[in-house]
Amino acid sequence: MSAEAKVETATQPNMDMAMKSADPQQASMHGSEFGSAWAPRGLDPELATAISQIPPERRAEIEKRVRRKLDLVLFPTLLAFYILNYIDRNALSFAKIVGIQKDLNLSSIEFATCLSILYVGYCLFQVPSNLMLSKSKPSLYLPSWMGVWGVVSGCTAAVQSYHGLVAVRFFLGIVEAPFFAGAIFLISSWYTRKEMATRCAILFGGNMLSNAFGSLIALGVTQNLDGVHGLESWRWLFIIEACMTVGFAICAVFLLPNYPHNTRWFKGEERTIAMWRLIDDVGEADDTQSDDVSIWQGFLLAIRDYKVWFLVWNHIFLTVGAGIVVFYPTVVGTLGFSRKITYLLIVPPYMLAFCTSVYGCHHADIKKERTWHMIGSLCVTLVGLIILASSLNTGARYFSLFLVTCSVYIAFDCNLAWISNCIPRPAPKRAAAIALVNMLSQLGNIIAGYIYPDNQSPRYWMACTVEGVAIVCAIVTTLVFRTILKRENRKLDEKELARGGEAAITEGRLEKVRYIY
Protein backbone atom coordinates (compact mmCIF):
# COMPACT_ATOMS: atom_id res chain seq x y z
CA MET A 1 0.00 0.00 0.00
CA SER A 2 1.39 3.41 -0.93
CA ALA A 3 2.09 6.17 1.55
CA GLU A 4 -0.57 8.31 -0.06
CA ALA A 5 -3.23 5.63 0.15
CA LYS A 6 -2.48 4.94 3.78
CA VAL A 7 -3.17 8.46 4.91
CA GLU A 8 -6.26 9.17 2.82
CA THR A 9 -8.90 11.05 4.72
CA ALA A 10 -11.04 7.93 4.47
CA THR A 11 -8.77 6.26 6.99
CA GLN A 12 -9.60 8.86 9.59
CA PRO A 13 -12.44 8.37 12.09
CA ASN A 14 -15.86 9.18 10.73
CA MET A 15 -17.86 11.96 12.25
CA ASP A 16 -20.57 9.32 12.65
CA MET A 17 -18.41 7.72 15.35
CA ALA A 18 -18.87 10.69 17.60
CA MET A 19 -21.57 9.71 19.99
CA LYS A 20 -20.26 6.60 21.70
CA SER A 21 -18.43 8.62 24.33
CA ALA A 22 -17.85 8.28 28.03
CA ASP A 23 -21.57 8.79 28.47
CA PRO A 24 -23.37 5.57 27.36
CA GLN A 25 -26.77 7.20 27.77
CA GLN A 26 -25.86 9.95 25.30
CA ALA A 27 -24.73 7.32 22.83
CA SER A 28 -27.91 5.30 23.10
CA MET A 29 -30.03 8.40 22.55
CA HIS A 30 -28.53 8.69 19.07
CA GLY A 31 -28.14 5.02 18.28
CA SER A 32 -30.02 5.27 15.03
CA GLU A 33 -27.56 7.80 13.66
CA PHE A 34 -24.29 6.68 15.25
CA GLY A 35 -24.89 3.03 16.04
CA SER A 36 -22.59 1.51 18.62
CA ALA A 37 -19.38 2.84 17.11
CA TRP A 38 -16.44 3.78 19.27
CA ALA A 39 -15.82 7.48 19.94
CA PRO A 40 -12.48 9.27 20.08
CA ARG A 41 -10.84 9.35 23.49
CA GLY A 42 -11.73 12.41 25.53
CA LEU A 43 -14.71 13.42 23.36
CA ASP A 44 -17.02 15.66 25.36
CA PRO A 45 -20.69 14.50 25.22
CA GLU A 46 -21.88 18.06 24.60
CA LEU A 47 -19.51 18.38 21.63
CA ALA A 48 -20.72 15.02 20.31
CA THR A 49 -24.33 16.21 20.53
CA ALA A 50 -23.47 19.53 18.87
CA ILE A 51 -21.61 17.93 15.95
CA SER A 52 -24.43 15.42 15.38
CA GLN A 53 -26.83 18.32 14.80
CA ILE A 54 -24.76 19.89 12.01
CA PRO A 55 -25.40 18.35 8.55
CA PRO A 56 -22.25 17.12 6.72
CA GLU A 57 -22.56 19.73 3.94
CA ARG A 58 -22.75 22.51 6.50
CA ARG A 59 -19.78 21.06 8.41
CA ALA A 60 -17.62 21.39 5.30
CA GLU A 61 -18.79 24.97 4.74
CA ILE A 62 -18.10 25.98 8.36
CA GLU A 63 -14.71 24.25 8.31
CA LYS A 64 -13.67 26.33 5.30
CA ARG A 65 -14.75 29.46 7.15
CA VAL A 66 -12.80 28.46 10.26
CA ARG A 67 -9.68 27.73 8.23
CA ARG A 68 -10.02 31.04 6.36
CA LYS A 69 -10.26 32.98 9.63
CA LEU A 70 -7.16 31.26 10.97
CA ASP A 71 -5.21 31.87 7.77
CA LEU A 72 -6.17 35.55 7.75
CA VAL A 73 -5.59 36.32 11.44
CA LEU A 74 -3.35 33.70 13.07
CA PHE A 75 -0.78 33.46 10.29
CA PRO A 76 -0.14 37.13 9.58
CA THR A 77 0.33 37.58 13.33
CA LEU A 78 2.73 34.65 13.73
CA LEU A 79 4.58 35.62 10.56
CA ALA A 80 5.13 39.15 11.89
CA PHE A 81 6.24 37.61 15.20
CA TYR A 82 8.83 35.48 13.44
CA ILE A 83 10.08 38.24 11.16
CA LEU A 84 10.74 40.44 14.19
CA ASN A 85 12.19 37.49 16.11
CA TYR A 86 14.81 36.85 13.45
CA ILE A 87 15.43 40.52 12.73
CA ASP A 88 16.39 40.97 16.40
CA ARG A 89 18.42 37.76 16.43
CA ASN A 90 20.30 38.38 13.19
CA ALA A 91 20.89 42.09 13.71
CA LEU A 92 24.37 41.20 14.95
CA SER A 93 25.27 39.70 11.56
CA PHE A 94 24.21 42.91 9.81
CA ALA A 95 25.98 45.00 12.47
CA LYS A 96 29.23 43.25 11.59
CA ILE A 97 29.14 44.79 8.12
CA VAL A 98 28.98 48.30 9.61
CA GLY A 99 31.69 47.89 12.22
CA ILE A 100 30.51 46.40 15.52
CA GLN A 101 33.40 43.92 15.46
CA LYS A 102 35.89 46.75 14.98
CA ASP A 103 34.23 49.15 17.46
CA LEU A 104 34.22 46.56 20.24
CA ASN A 105 37.66 45.22 19.26
CA LEU A 106 36.41 41.64 18.80
CA SER A 107 38.50 38.85 17.34
CA SER A 108 36.98 36.43 14.83
CA ILE A 109 36.52 33.79 17.54
CA GLU A 110 34.99 36.29 19.98
CA PHE A 111 32.47 37.43 17.38
CA ALA A 112 31.59 33.79 16.62
CA THR A 113 31.07 33.21 20.35
CA CYS A 114 28.72 36.19 20.55
CA LEU A 115 26.68 34.70 17.71
CA SER A 116 26.64 31.18 19.15
CA ILE A 117 26.04 31.95 22.84
CA LEU A 118 22.47 32.97 22.00
CA TYR A 119 21.65 29.34 21.20
CA VAL A 120 22.89 28.17 24.59
CA GLY A 121 20.31 30.33 26.33
CA TYR A 122 17.80 29.35 23.66
CA CYS A 123 18.26 25.65 24.46
CA LEU A 124 17.95 26.01 28.22
CA PHE A 125 14.42 27.40 28.35
CA GLN A 126 12.66 25.95 25.31
CA VAL A 127 11.24 22.71 26.73
CA PRO A 128 10.01 24.21 30.05
CA SER A 129 8.45 27.10 28.15
CA ASN A 130 6.55 24.92 25.68
CA LEU A 131 5.25 22.70 28.46
CA MET A 132 3.98 25.79 30.30
CA LEU A 133 2.40 27.06 27.07
CA SER A 134 0.37 23.84 26.75
CA LYS A 135 -1.39 24.87 29.97
CA SER A 136 -1.46 28.66 29.35
CA LYS A 137 -3.18 31.21 27.11
CA PRO A 138 -1.00 31.80 24.02
CA SER A 139 -2.55 35.25 23.44
CA LEU A 140 -0.90 36.45 26.66
CA TYR A 141 2.06 34.09 27.01
CA LEU A 142 3.75 34.61 23.64
CA PRO A 143 3.34 38.43 23.35
CA SER A 144 4.67 38.86 26.90
CA TRP A 145 7.90 37.11 25.98
CA MET A 146 8.06 39.05 22.74
CA GLY A 147 8.02 42.34 24.64
CA VAL A 148 10.80 41.10 26.93
CA TRP A 149 13.04 39.96 24.07
CA GLY A 150 12.53 43.34 22.38
CA VAL A 151 13.84 45.10 25.49
CA VAL A 152 16.81 42.72 25.86
CA SER A 153 17.70 43.08 22.18
CA GLY A 154 17.59 46.87 22.53
CA CYS A 155 20.14 46.60 25.35
CA THR A 156 22.71 45.53 22.73
CA ALA A 157 22.90 49.20 21.74
CA ALA A 158 24.46 49.96 25.13
CA VAL A 159 27.23 47.34 25.18
CA GLN A 160 30.83 48.56 25.30
CA SER A 161 32.81 45.32 25.42
CA TYR A 162 32.98 41.67 24.44
CA HIS A 163 31.74 40.53 27.86
CA GLY A 164 28.74 42.86 27.72
CA LEU A 165 27.78 41.60 24.27
CA VAL A 166 28.10 37.95 25.34
CA ALA A 167 25.84 38.56 28.36
CA VAL A 168 23.14 40.31 26.31
CA ARG A 169 23.19 37.62 23.63
CA PHE A 170 22.91 34.83 26.23
CA PHE A 171 19.84 36.41 27.84
CA LEU A 172 18.37 37.18 24.42
CA GLY A 173 18.47 33.45 23.71
CA ILE A 174 16.58 32.68 26.92
CA VAL A 175 13.77 35.17 26.28
CA GLU A 176 13.45 34.28 22.59
CA ALA A 177 13.18 30.56 23.38
CA PRO A 178 9.39 30.48 23.97
CA PHE A 179 8.43 31.75 20.54
CA PHE A 180 9.24 29.36 17.71
CA ALA A 181 8.46 26.03 19.38
CA GLY A 182 5.43 27.73 20.93
CA ALA A 183 4.24 28.90 17.52
CA ILE A 184 4.56 25.40 16.04
CA PHE A 185 2.62 23.99 19.01
CA LEU A 186 -0.10 26.61 18.58
CA ILE A 187 -0.41 25.82 14.86
CA SER A 188 -0.67 22.10 15.63
CA SER A 189 -3.50 22.92 18.06
CA TRP A 190 -5.57 24.39 15.21
CA TYR A 191 -4.60 22.58 12.00
CA THR A 192 -4.89 18.96 10.90
CA ARG A 193 -1.87 16.84 10.04
CA LYS A 194 -2.36 17.19 6.29
CA GLU A 195 -2.38 21.01 6.66
CA MET A 196 0.77 21.29 8.77
CA ALA A 197 3.62 21.36 6.23
CA THR A 198 2.17 24.32 4.32
CA ARG A 199 1.59 26.27 7.53
CA CYS A 200 5.06 25.45 8.87
CA ALA A 201 6.49 26.72 5.59
CA ILE A 202 4.55 29.98 5.88
CA LEU A 203 5.70 30.43 9.47
CA PHE A 204 9.31 29.55 8.72
CA GLY A 205 9.06 31.97 5.83
CA GLY A 206 9.42 34.61 8.53
CA ASN A 207 13.06 33.54 8.73
CA MET A 208 13.58 34.29 5.04
CA LEU A 209 11.54 37.48 5.00
CA SER A 210 13.36 38.73 8.10
CA ASN A 211 16.67 38.45 6.28
CA ALA A 212 15.22 40.34 3.32
CA PHE A 213 13.55 43.05 5.39
CA GLY A 214 16.37 43.12 7.95
CA SER A 215 18.79 43.86 5.15
CA LEU A 216 16.69 46.79 3.93
CA ILE A 217 16.24 48.14 7.47
CA ALA A 218 19.98 47.86 8.08
CA LEU A 219 20.65 49.70 4.82
CA GLY A 220 18.31 52.55 5.76
CA VAL A 221 19.70 52.89 9.27
CA THR A 222 23.37 52.75 8.30
CA GLN A 223 22.86 55.20 5.43
CA ASN A 224 21.02 57.82 7.48
CA LEU A 225 21.71 57.49 11.21
CA ASP A 226 25.44 56.92 11.54
CA GLY A 227 26.77 59.43 14.09
CA VAL A 228 23.36 60.88 15.00
CA HIS A 229 23.44 61.92 18.69
CA GLY A 230 26.96 60.51 18.83
CA LEU A 231 25.87 56.89 18.28
CA GLU A 232 27.27 54.49 15.72
CA SER A 233 24.80 53.21 13.12
CA TRP A 234 24.81 49.67 14.52
CA ARG A 235 23.58 50.99 17.88
CA TRP A 236 20.68 52.72 16.14
CA LEU A 237 19.93 49.45 14.36
CA PHE A 238 19.31 47.64 17.66
CA ILE A 239 17.31 50.55 19.13
CA ILE A 240 14.94 50.86 16.16
CA GLU A 241 14.37 47.13 15.79
CA ALA A 242 13.69 46.78 19.53
CA CYS A 243 11.04 49.52 19.38
CA MET A 244 9.34 47.72 16.48
CA THR A 245 9.26 44.46 18.45
CA VAL A 246 7.84 45.93 21.67
CA GLY A 247 5.20 47.86 19.73
CA PHE A 248 3.99 44.78 17.89
CA ALA A 249 3.97 42.69 21.10
CA ILE A 250 1.29 45.00 22.49
CA CYS A 251 -0.83 44.61 19.34
CA ALA A 252 -0.38 40.81 19.30
CA VAL A 253 -2.26 40.42 22.60
CA PHE A 254 -5.45 41.40 20.74
CA LEU A 255 -4.73 39.39 17.57
CA LEU A 256 -3.41 36.02 18.69
CA PRO A 257 -5.94 33.21 19.38
CA ASN A 258 -5.77 30.78 22.27
CA TYR A 259 -7.06 27.24 21.65
CA PRO A 260 -10.21 26.07 19.84
CA HIS A 261 -12.19 25.74 23.08
CA ASN A 262 -11.42 29.23 24.45
CA THR A 263 -10.71 31.63 21.58
CA ARG A 264 -12.95 34.68 21.79
CA TRP A 265 -13.50 35.10 18.04
CA PHE A 266 -14.94 31.62 17.51
CA LYS A 267 -18.48 31.03 18.76
CA GLY A 268 -21.24 28.47 18.30
CA GLU A 269 -20.89 26.22 15.27
CA GLU A 270 -17.48 27.61 14.33
CA ARG A 271 -16.06 26.65 17.72
CA THR A 272 -17.67 23.22 17.49
CA ILE A 273 -16.14 22.55 14.07
CA ALA A 274 -12.75 23.98 15.10
CA MET A 275 -12.63 21.46 17.94
CA TRP A 276 -14.14 18.56 16.02
CA ARG A 277 -11.94 18.64 12.94
CA LEU A 278 -8.84 17.99 15.06
CA ILE A 279 -10.54 15.09 16.82
CA ASP A 280 -11.65 13.71 13.46
CA ASP A 281 -8.08 13.95 12.17
CA VAL A 282 -6.40 11.75 14.80
CA GLY A 283 -9.22 9.95 16.60
CA GLU A 284 -8.59 11.64 19.94
CA ALA A 285 -9.57 14.89 21.58
CA ASP A 286 -6.80 17.41 22.18
CA ASP A 287 -6.41 18.11 25.88
CA THR A 288 -5.11 21.66 26.24
CA GLN A 289 -8.07 22.21 28.59
CA SER A 290 -7.55 19.01 30.58
CA ASP A 291 -5.35 18.01 33.51
CA ASP A 292 -5.33 14.32 32.48
CA VAL A 293 -1.69 14.57 31.37
CA SER A 294 0.56 16.82 33.44
CA ILE A 295 3.47 18.85 32.14
CA TRP A 296 5.95 16.36 33.65
CA GLN A 297 4.09 13.36 32.20
CA GLY A 298 4.09 15.00 28.77
CA PHE A 299 7.85 15.47 28.97
CA LEU A 300 8.42 11.84 29.99
CA LEU A 301 6.19 10.57 27.19
CA ALA A 302 8.19 12.61 24.67
CA ILE A 303 11.66 11.51 25.74
CA ARG A 304 10.57 7.84 25.77
CA ASP A 305 9.29 7.93 22.19
CA TYR A 306 11.98 6.82 19.72
CA LYS A 307 10.28 8.81 16.93
CA VAL A 308 11.12 12.04 18.76
CA TRP A 309 14.83 11.19 18.71
CA PHE A 310 14.84 10.45 14.99
CA LEU A 311 13.27 13.86 14.41
CA VAL A 312 15.78 15.48 16.78
CA TRP A 313 18.80 14.07 14.94
CA ASN A 314 17.33 14.91 11.57
CA HIS A 315 16.75 18.50 12.63
CA ILE A 316 20.28 18.81 14.02
CA PHE A 317 21.69 17.67 10.67
CA LEU A 318 19.39 20.08 8.81
CA THR A 319 20.40 22.97 11.07
CA VAL A 320 24.11 22.32 10.51
CA GLY A 321 23.43 21.97 6.78
CA ALA A 322 21.75 25.37 6.76
CA GLY A 323 24.55 26.99 8.79
CA ILE A 324 25.26 29.43 5.98
CA VAL A 325 22.16 31.35 7.07
CA VAL A 326 23.97 32.53 10.23
CA PHE A 327 26.74 34.11 8.14
CA TYR A 328 24.72 35.00 5.06
CA PRO A 329 25.58 38.73 5.04
CA THR A 330 29.27 37.85 5.47
CA VAL A 331 29.21 35.34 2.60
CA VAL A 332 27.40 37.78 0.31
CA GLY A 333 30.00 40.37 1.30
CA THR A 334 32.72 38.17 -0.26
CA LEU A 335 31.21 38.78 -3.71
CA GLY A 336 33.14 42.05 -3.73
CA PHE A 337 30.41 44.69 -3.97
CA SER A 338 29.92 47.88 -1.96
CA ARG A 339 28.13 47.81 1.38
CA LYS A 340 24.91 49.17 -0.15
CA ILE A 341 24.87 46.61 -2.98
CA THR A 342 25.71 43.81 -0.53
CA TYR A 343 22.63 44.62 1.54
CA LEU A 344 20.47 44.67 -1.59
CA LEU A 345 21.88 41.37 -2.90
CA ILE A 346 20.73 39.61 0.27
CA VAL A 347 17.07 40.27 -0.55
CA PRO A 348 16.34 38.28 -3.78
CA PRO A 349 17.48 34.79 -2.62
CA TYR A 350 15.35 35.01 0.50
CA MET A 351 12.28 36.34 -1.29
CA LEU A 352 12.48 33.49 -3.80
CA ALA A 353 13.17 30.99 -1.00
CA PHE A 354 9.94 32.03 0.73
CA CYS A 355 7.95 31.26 -2.44
CA THR A 356 9.67 27.94 -3.16
CA SER A 357 9.37 26.66 0.41
CA VAL A 358 5.66 27.45 0.63
CA TYR A 359 5.02 25.85 -2.77
CA GLY A 360 7.15 22.78 -2.00
CA CYS A 361 5.51 22.15 1.36
CA HIS A 362 2.03 22.78 -0.02
CA HIS A 363 2.76 20.13 -2.63
CA ALA A 364 3.94 17.78 0.15
CA ASP A 365 0.63 18.34 1.96
CA ILE A 366 -1.38 17.68 -1.20
CA LYS A 367 0.51 14.43 -1.80
CA LYS A 368 0.46 13.58 1.93
CA GLU A 369 4.17 12.82 1.64
CA ARG A 370 7.36 13.99 3.36
CA THR A 371 10.41 11.87 2.46
CA TRP A 372 10.94 12.56 -1.23
CA HIS A 373 10.17 16.26 -0.93
CA MET A 374 12.87 16.48 1.74
CA ILE A 375 15.46 14.40 -0.09
CA GLY A 376 14.90 16.17 -3.41
CA SER A 377 15.39 19.59 -1.84
CA LEU A 378 18.50 18.45 0.07
CA CYS A 379 20.13 17.20 -3.14
CA VAL A 380 19.72 20.71 -4.58
CA THR A 381 21.29 22.12 -1.38
CA LEU A 382 24.31 19.86 -1.88
CA VAL A 383 24.79 21.15 -5.43
CA GLY A 384 24.71 24.74 -4.14
CA LEU A 385 27.32 24.04 -1.46
CA ILE A 386 29.64 22.36 -3.99
CA ILE A 387 29.45 25.38 -6.31
CA LEU A 388 30.06 27.81 -3.43
CA ALA A 389 33.17 25.93 -2.26
CA SER A 390 34.66 25.30 -5.69
CA SER A 391 34.10 28.51 -7.66
CA LEU A 392 35.39 32.07 -7.41
CA ASN A 393 33.15 33.31 -10.23
CA THR A 394 30.85 35.99 -8.81
CA GLY A 395 27.81 34.93 -10.83
CA ALA A 396 28.23 31.24 -9.98
CA ARG A 397 28.67 31.97 -6.28
CA TYR A 398 25.58 34.17 -6.15
CA PHE A 399 23.62 31.47 -8.02
CA SER A 400 24.77 28.90 -5.45
CA LEU A 401 23.26 31.04 -2.68
CA PHE A 402 19.91 30.88 -4.50
CA LEU A 403 20.17 27.09 -4.72
CA VAL A 404 20.96 26.65 -1.02
CA THR A 405 18.33 29.03 0.37
CA CYS A 406 15.58 27.96 -2.04
CA SER A 407 15.94 24.27 -1.21
CA VAL A 408 17.06 23.67 2.37
CA TYR A 409 14.00 25.34 3.91
CA ILE A 410 11.63 22.84 2.25
CA ALA A 411 13.31 20.02 4.17
CA PHE A 412 13.28 22.11 7.35
CA ASP A 413 9.56 22.77 7.15
CA CYS A 414 8.63 19.18 6.27
CA ASN A 415 10.60 17.92 9.27
CA LEU A 416 8.81 20.38 11.56
CA ALA A 417 5.44 19.22 10.21
CA TRP A 418 6.53 15.62 10.75
CA ILE A 419 6.60 16.18 14.51
CA SER A 420 2.87 16.85 14.76
CA ASN A 421 2.16 14.20 12.11
CA CYS A 422 3.87 11.52 14.22
CA ILE A 423 3.01 12.78 17.73
CA PRO A 424 -0.44 14.40 17.58
CA ARG A 425 -1.60 13.62 21.14
CA PRO A 426 -1.58 14.24 24.06
CA ALA A 427 -0.96 17.97 23.89
CA PRO A 428 1.78 18.14 26.60
CA LYS A 429 3.69 15.35 24.83
CA ARG A 430 3.36 17.15 21.50
CA ALA A 431 4.53 20.40 23.12
CA ALA A 432 7.55 18.66 24.65
CA ALA A 433 8.41 16.90 21.38
CA ILE A 434 8.30 20.13 19.37
CA ALA A 435 10.45 21.91 21.95
CA LEU A 436 12.97 19.04 22.20
CA VAL A 437 13.43 18.91 18.43
CA ASN A 438 13.83 22.67 18.13
CA MET A 439 15.97 22.98 21.27
CA LEU A 440 18.51 20.28 20.48
CA SER A 441 18.71 21.35 16.85
CA GLN A 442 20.26 24.60 18.09
CA LEU A 443 23.44 22.60 18.59
CA GLY A 444 23.68 22.92 14.82
CA ASN A 445 23.63 26.71 15.07
CA ILE A 446 26.35 26.61 17.72
CA ILE A 447 28.52 24.49 15.40
CA ALA A 448 27.76 26.79 12.47
CA GLY A 449 29.05 29.76 14.42
CA TYR A 450 32.61 28.38 14.33
CA ILE A 451 32.97 27.03 10.78
CA TYR A 452 33.20 30.40 9.02
CA PRO A 453 36.54 31.85 10.22
CA ASP A 454 37.64 35.01 8.41
CA ASN A 455 40.82 33.36 7.13
CA GLN A 456 38.77 30.95 4.96
CA SER A 457 37.04 33.68 2.99
CA PRO A 458 35.77 33.60 0.26
CA ARG A 459 35.40 29.85 -0.39
CA TYR A 460 34.76 28.78 3.22
CA TRP A 461 35.66 25.21 2.27
CA MET A 462 35.47 23.93 5.86
CA ALA A 463 31.94 25.28 6.29
CA CYS A 464 30.77 23.85 2.97
CA THR A 465 32.31 20.45 3.80
CA VAL A 466 30.74 20.24 7.26
CA GLU A 467 27.38 21.39 5.93
CA GLY A 468 27.55 18.93 3.02
CA VAL A 469 28.27 16.00 5.35
CA ALA A 470 25.36 17.07 7.57
CA ILE A 471 23.03 17.18 4.54
CA VAL A 472 24.04 13.62 3.57
CA CYS A 473 23.38 12.49 7.16
CA ALA A 474 19.93 14.13 7.00
CA ILE A 475 19.15 12.25 3.78
CA VAL A 476 20.13 8.92 5.38
CA THR A 477 18.14 9.65 8.56
CA THR A 478 15.09 10.60 6.52
CA LEU A 479 15.23 7.34 4.57
CA VAL A 480 15.62 5.25 7.74
CA PHE A 481 12.74 7.08 9.43
CA ARG A 482 10.55 6.50 6.37
CA THR A 483 11.28 2.76 6.56
CA ILE A 484 10.34 2.70 10.26
CA LEU A 485 7.05 4.54 9.69
CA LYS A 486 6.19 2.19 6.81
CA ARG A 487 6.77 -0.74 9.17
CA GLU A 488 4.54 0.85 11.84
CA ASN A 489 1.76 1.37 9.28
CA ARG A 490 2.10 -2.25 8.16
CA LYS A 491 1.66 -3.41 11.77
CA LEU A 492 -1.50 -1.32 12.03
CA ASP A 493 -2.76 -2.88 8.78
CA GLU A 494 -2.19 -6.34 10.21
CA LYS A 495 -4.05 -5.48 13.42
CA GLU A 496 -6.93 -4.13 11.39
CA LEU A 497 -7.11 -7.28 9.24
CA ALA A 498 -7.04 -9.43 12.36
CA ARG A 499 -10.21 -7.64 13.47
CA GLY A 500 -11.95 -8.22 10.19
CA GLY A 501 -11.28 -4.72 8.88
CA GLU A 502 -12.30 -2.94 12.09
CA ALA A 503 -9.76 -0.42 13.31
CA ALA A 504 -7.71 -1.37 16.33
CA ILE A 505 -8.18 0.77 19.40
CA THR A 506 -5.31 1.36 21.80
CA GLU A 507 -5.53 3.65 24.83
CA GLY A 508 -8.55 5.38 23.33
CA ARG A 509 -6.82 6.20 20.05
CA LEU A 510 -8.10 4.93 16.72
CA GLU A 511 -5.15 3.09 15.19
CA LYS A 512 -6.70 3.29 11.74
CA VAL A 513 -5.03 6.69 11.42
CA ARG A 514 -1.69 6.16 9.65
CA TYR A 515 1.68 7.88 9.84
CA ILE A 516 2.52 10.22 6.99
CA TYR A 517 5.91 9.54 5.45
Automatic annotation (TrEMBL):
It is found in: Membrane. The chain crosses the membrane at residues 70-87, 107-127, 139-160, 166-188, 200-222, 234-256, 308-329, 341-360, 372-392, 398-419, 431-453, 459-481. Keywords: Membrane, Transmembrane, Transmembrane helix, Transport. One of its GO terms (cellular component) is membrane. GO terms for molecular function: transmembrane transporter activity. InterPro entries: MFS, MFS_trans_sf. It is a multi-pass membrane protein. It comes from the Eukaryota. SUPFAM superfamilies: MFS general substrate transporter. This is Major facilitator superfamily domain-containing protein. It comes from Exophiala viscosa.
